[in-house]
Specification:
The protein has 22 helices and 7 strands. The strands form 2 sheets. It has a 5-stranded antiparallel sheet, with helices on one face. Strands 1-2 form a two-stranded antiparallel sheet. The longest helix is centred in the first third of the chain and has 32 residues. The chain is of the alpha+beta class.
Length: about 600
C-alpha cells in the first residue's frame, strides 16, 4: 500500500517524547546551533549593510535575530495547543528576504520593514490555520523540492568558505583541515556506535580546527578581545501605520517571501518527522501546522524588534539522522544555546572563529544528509511520472536561476531579483506545475452528508452512480460498497459514535484516476491516524483490537493506497481504488463536478 507508514524499524536512540541525558542534549544542541547561528549573523548583516544602515543598527538586528532564533527553537521543541511542533526544529533568518528587506529599508526605514514583517507574520498564521486548504498545492513533492533546492542555495556559500583563510597561509592548510573534518565525522558516523556516534560532528570540528591551528589558520584574537557579557544598544523601530504607497507596493513581495518561508517550515517539519521515530509513522500534519504557526509567532516578535523574517532550516533532521537522537530536549537545548549566544559575545566569537574550511566541511556533511532526506520524503510519498516531472523540472529550474544560467539579465530585474534565489524560483515552478496538474485533472463530484453510519446508503448510492457514469461495471460497484462502509467505521469510534463530537460533517469526493477511482473523505478532526493503525495490524492483538482490525484489513485489501492527513480542524482520508480486471478494460468519462 502507499501509506506513509512502514514496518521497518530505524536505529533511533531517543524519540521526541523521550528525555535524552543532559550532556547529550546540550552537546547536540550546540552542534545544531552552529548553522542557524552563522545564518542569523550573516543574512541580516548583508541586507542591512546593503541598505546603508549604520553599525549600531546592524549590531542590534543581529542580537535580536540570534535571540529570536533561540526562543523560536525552544517553542518549536515543546507542544501545547497549536504552539510548538514537538520536534527538533532549527529556526534561522530567511535568505529569501534579503532583497525585499533592503527595498523596505531604503523606501521607509526600519519602521516600514517592521510593519511589513508583521503583516507577513499575520499571513503566515492564516496559512497555518487553513493549511488543509493548501494541501493539494504544498504537497510533499513540493516540500521535498524545496529541501533539495535549499542545499543548492546554500552550497555556493559553503564552497566559498573553503578558501576563507588568512593571507600567507600554507596552501595545504585549508584542504587538509576540511578533509580532516569530513573524514573524522564520516568515519565515526559510519563505523562507530553508542556515544561516539553522538559526538561525531563536534569531534570532527575539533579535529579540523587542530589541523588548521597547526597550519596557522586559526585566529583566536577575536575570542580574546570579545566581552564576556554584553547587550547591544536598543534600536526599537516602531511601526509605520501610514500604509502609504511604499507599503502596498512592497506587500506582495513580502507575501511571496512568506509563502517561501512557509514552504521551508513545512519541509523542515516533514524532514524531521521522517527521521524521528524508530518505526515509520504517518505525517502528523497537526505538528506541521504548529510549526508554521510558531514560525509566524517568531516573525511577529521579529517585526517588533526590527529584524528580518525567520525561516526554518532542516539541519536538525540531518543531525538526528546522523546521531539517532531526535529528543525534543535537544531542541530546548538548541534554543538555550542560541539565546545565550546573543548575550555572550565571547561564546559567539568562539563559534565564529572556527576556520572557514572546517565550518564548510561540517555544514557540507549536514547538507549532504539533508539532500538524501529530501529524496526520502519524496519517495515515501509515492513517486510516479507526474511527480518525477514536477520535481525534476523544478529542481533544474531552480539550479539554473541560482547560477545565472537562465536569462540572467531578465531574472535580475524581475521583482527585485527575487528569482535569483534558486529555492524561490524552483519552489514557484513546483507550485505552478502542481496547480496545473490540479486544474487539468478529471473533474470530481462531491457529496455532503453527516459522519454517521446512517449515511452509508446515501454514500454508497453516490459512489455507485459515479462509478457507472465513469464507465465501470458491477464489479467496481461491489468493491466500492465495502470501501464506503469500512472507511466510515474507521473514522468513527469503536462504538459507532463520533470520535470527538456528534454532528460531524463529511464531504466525500470522487474522481477518476488512472484505471480506478480516487476517493476522499473529509470530516471534522478525529484522534487516531488510520495509516498508523493499518501499519500496526497484527501487533498487540486483543479482543477489542481484533474487532477493530477487521475494517482496517478490508481497507488494506480493497485499496491500492491509503493516506490519512490529520489537521487540527479536519480529517482527510484518501484512497485509490483500482477497478477489478473485468472493469479496468472499460473506458468512460469522468462526471461533472457538483
Amino acid at each position: 500500500m502507499g501509506t506513509a507508514a512502514g514496518d521497518g524499524s530505524r536505529n533511533i536512540r531517543f524519540e521526541p517524547p523521550e528525555r535524552a541525558p543532559l550532556p547529550v542534549a546540550l552537546g547536540l544542541g550546540l552542534q545544531v546551533a552552529i548553522t542557524p547561528l552563522f545564518v542569523a549573523i550573516m543574512i541580516p548583516t548583508i541586507a542591512f549593510r546593503a541598505a546603508g544602515s549604520d553599525d549600531g543598527l546592524v549590531s542590534w538586528v543581529v542580537f535580536v535575530s540570534v535571540l529570536l532564533c533561540g526562543l523560536t527553537a525552544a517553542l518549536q521543541a515543546v507542544r501545547f495547543g497549536r504552539i510548538g511542533a514537538g520536534y527538533l526544529i532549527a529556526p534561522a533568518i530567511s535568505a529569501a528576504g534579503i532583497a525585499v528587506t533592503t527595498d523596505a529599508l531604503r523606501s521607509g526605514g526600519p519602521a516600514l520593514l517592521a510593519t511589513l514583517v508583521l503583516s507577513a507574520a499575520v499571513l503566515q498564521v492564516l496559512f497555518s490555520a487553513r493549511l488543509s486548504w493548501l494541501r493539494r498545492i504544498l504537497t510533499p513533492a513540493v516540500s521535498s523540492t524545496v529541501v533539495l533546492l535549499l542545499v543548492v542555495n546554500v552550497m555556493p556559500v559553503v564552497f566559498s568558505m573553503l578558501d576563507d583563510v588568512p593571507e600567507g597561509a600554507p596552501p595545504a592548510g585549508a584542504p587538509l583541515a576540511a578533509l580532516s573534518t569530513v573524514f573524522v565525522i564520516s568515519a565515526i558516523a559510519l563505523k562507530a556506535s553508542g556515544a561516539w556516534r553522538l559526538w561525531a560532528p563536534i569531534v570532527g570540528v575539533i579535529a579540523g580546527s587542530l589541523v588548521a591551528a597547526a597550519f596557522g589558520i586559526y585566529d583566536g584574537t577575536r575570542v580574546a578581545e570579545a566581552a564576556w557579557i554584553a547587550v547591544s544598544a536598543p534600536r526599537w523601530p516602531g511601526l509605520d501605520l501610514d500604509f502609504g504607497p511604499e507599503f502596498w507596493g512592497l506587500l506582495p513581495a513580502f507575501a511571496f517571501v512568506t509563502l517561501v518561508t512557509t514552504m521551508q517550515s513545512i519541509s523542515g517539519s516533514l524532514a524531521i518527522q521522517s527521521v524521528s521515530w524508530r518505526r515509520r509513522r504517518a505525517v502528523d500534519f497537526r505538528s506541521v501546522q504548529n510549526t508554521v504557526t510558531t514560525s509566524g509567532l517568531g516573525n511577529s516578535l521579529a517585526a517588533l524588534g526590527g529584524a528580518m523574517p525567520l525561516s526554518t532550516l532542516s539541519t536538525g533532521a540531518s543531525l538526528a539522522e546522523l546521531t539517532g537522537v531526535a529528543s525534543r530536549t535537544v531542541g530546548i537545548a538548541l534554543g538555550i544555546w542560541l539565546a545565550g549566544f546573543a548575550f555572550v559575545p565571547k561564546a559567539l566569537a568562539l563559534i565564529i572563529s572556527v576556520p572557514g574550511p572546517v565550518l564548510a566541511a561540517y555544514i557540507g556533511v549536514l547538507l549532504a544528509i539533508l539532500f538524501a532526506l529530501g529524496l526520502k520524503v519524496l519517495l515515501n510519498d509515492g513517486f510516479d511520472h507526474r511527480t518525477g516531472l514536477v520535481v525534476g523540472l523544478s529542481f533544474w529550474t531552480g539550479l539554473g536561476f541560482q547560477y545565472d544560467l537562465i536569462f540572467p539579465d531578465l531574472v535580475r530585474d524581475f521583482a527585485g531579483g527575487l528569482l535569483t534565489n534558486g529555492m524561490t524560483a524552483g519552489g514557484i515552478m513546483a507550485v505552478l506545475l502542481t496547480g496545473f496538474t490540479l486544474l487539468t485533472a478529471p473533474r470530481a463530484r462531491r457529496l455532503r452528508t453527516d459522519l454517521d453510519l446512517a449515511a452509508a446508503p446515501r454514500i454508497r448510492d453516490f459512489l455507485t452512480e459515479f462509478s457507472t457514469r465513469s464507465g465501470f461495471g458491477k464489479a467496481m460497484a461491489d468493491r466500492l460498497d465495502p470501501v464506503c462502509e469500512e472507511t466510515l467505521l474507521t473514522l468513527l469510534a469503536p462504538d459507532g459514535s463520533a470520535d470527538r463530537k456528534t454532528g460531524r460533517g463529511l464531504v466525500v469526493t470522487a474522481r477518476r484516476k488512472g484505471s480506478g477511482l480516487a476517493l476522499e473523505f473529509v470530516a471534522a478532526a478525529g484522534s487516531e491516524n488510520v495509516e498508523d493503525r493499518v501499519a500496526l495490524l497484527g501487533e498487540h492483538v486483543d479482543e477489542v483490537s481484533a474487532e477493530r482490525e477487521v475494517s482496517l484489513r478490508l481497507l488494506r485489501h480493497l485499496s491500492s493506497s491509503l493516506r490519512h492527513q490529520q489537521y487540527h480542524d479536519t480529517d482527510i482520508v484518501t484512497l485509490q481504488v483500482d477497478a477489478p480486471r473485468s472493469d479496468a478494460a472499460t473506458g468512460g468519462t469522468s462526471a461533472p463536478e457538483t
